[in-house]
Amino acid sequence: MHKRLYVAATNQHVGKTTCTLGLVEAFRERGIRVGYCKPVGQDAVDLKNLQVDKDALLFSTMMHFDLVAKIHSPVILGPGATQAFLDEPDLYPFRTNVQLAASFLEKEYEMVVYEGTGHPGVGSVVGLSNADVAKLIDAPVILIVEGGIGFTIDRLNLCLSLFREQGVQLAGVIINKVRPDKIEKVQSYVGKKLEEWDIPLLGVLPYDKTLMYPLLDTIRHVIQGRVLANPQGLNNLVEEVVAASLLAKVDISQEDQGMLLVVSKNRLNESMEKIVSLCKEKNLPHQPLAGIIITGDGRVDEKIGTFSHEDFIFENKIPLITTPLDTYGTAVQISRLEVKINIQTMGKANRAVELIRENVDLDKIKWG
User: Fold this and answer.
1) Distance (Å, rounded) from C-alpha 105 to C-alpha 59?
2) How buried is 124 (Cβ within 10 angstroms: 0-12 exposed, 13-18 middle, 19+ buried)?
3) How many structural domains is the chain composed of?
4) What is the DSSP string of 169-185?
5) Average pLDDT, integer, range 268-292
6) What is the separation of C-alpha 283 from the centre of its chain, rounded to a whole number of angstroms?
7) How many Å apart are CA 359 and CA 329, to the nearest integer?
8) What is the CATH number for 315?
9) In a shared domain, residues 14 and 138
10) How many whole angstroms separate alpha carbon 309 and alpha carbon 274?
């Protein structure tokens, strides 16, 4: 008998992809042949003249399957798609596309895990909200929600109403991003409310700050940055952002290696002198910088030999980036950044699998 699951979330950025990755791998570790589908996608990438959702691309890399757009990413709601549908809905057989993809996958696999998009109502404009899709393919839903107590219960109740309205089976809830010292309390109180609703609490995942570290290249995009040197380091993970004015107060340890220095051109020499001196004084096994962002009007010389310690930057392959934003503007843009798992952050994907393996009980899933 083929089993299927639909993984939805109460809203964006709560860890739906993280949990879906972990669930897929957990089932595969049990010897189950698992397929994957992103029925409705919003963030597309181009693949061989076709568009697929970026999460489908991630899963094809993790699960080692050949990505086929009409099977693994059958509907893409890119810019203009909803207006085009509303103008001439008969030209867009979105529901049929989802059904065909599901039919194919469920013939090929023992289980198919479908990943939702956004909050439960996303896709309603074309008749394919998360609740609509789960109903269409007759898949029980695991709902991912961010940790807390009052807020979490309120958010769950709001989002569950859409699935209840469609008569969709709720297979369970996973609470994500919970402070380790709050796990027991959250598990008790939210678990009690879920028990009233006859929905199993499958697990509580601790907040893991390593999953929130962005790639330097992701930061470069949001600050309109231009690379001046060492682009090969753009996949460095940024663990801490330090302004040059605060550098003297930073205690660099033996473990530090993900520091992003944000500095104006006028303070670059002074800051580099401080970094190099600290490395020597503390006999650090590796230098701490993931990258350097030079703020200001962007008119930094292309040749960076105009400041001290350029040898240190090149020897350690430290990316040097310039931005037209000032230091405050740079900090604001970085603070607004939402970090997602993608094919450049496979280490995060592996950590996501560990979190599910360690904290979620698959045997509690309510299949109906």
Assistant:
1) 15
2) middle
3) 2
4) -EEEEEEEEE-GGGHHH
5) 83
6) 36
7) 39
8) 3.40.1390.20
9) yes
10) 11
At 338, give phi and psi (nearest 5°): -100, 125
Are residues 237 and 107 part of one domain?
A: no
Q: Does 288 lie in the same domain as 139?
A: no
User: What are 181-233's pLDDT values in tens digits?
Assistant: 999 999 999 999 999 999 999 999 998 777 777 888 888 888 889 898 899 88
316-364 tens-digit pLDDT: 898 999 998 888 788 888 877 665 655 455 566 777 788 889 999 999 9
Beta bridge partners of 37: 114
Return the CATH number at 355. 3.40.50.300
Range of the domain at 99: 3-211+342-364
- Residue 43 near residue 58 (C-beta atoms within 8 A): no
Ramachandran angles phi, psi of 37, nearest 5°: -150, 140
Asked if 174 and 28 sit in the same domain, the reply is yes
329 and 219 in a common domain: yes
Alpha-carbon distance values, 348 to 55, 58, 208, 211, 217 (Å): 14, 12, 10, 6, 16
Q: Structure tokens of 103?
A: 């039919």
Are 240 and 167 members of one domain? no
Say if CB 223 and CB 325 are below 8 A apart. yes
Residue 8, classed as helix, strand or coil, is strand
Q: Which of 224, 213, 296, 227 is nearest to 258 (CA)?
A: 213
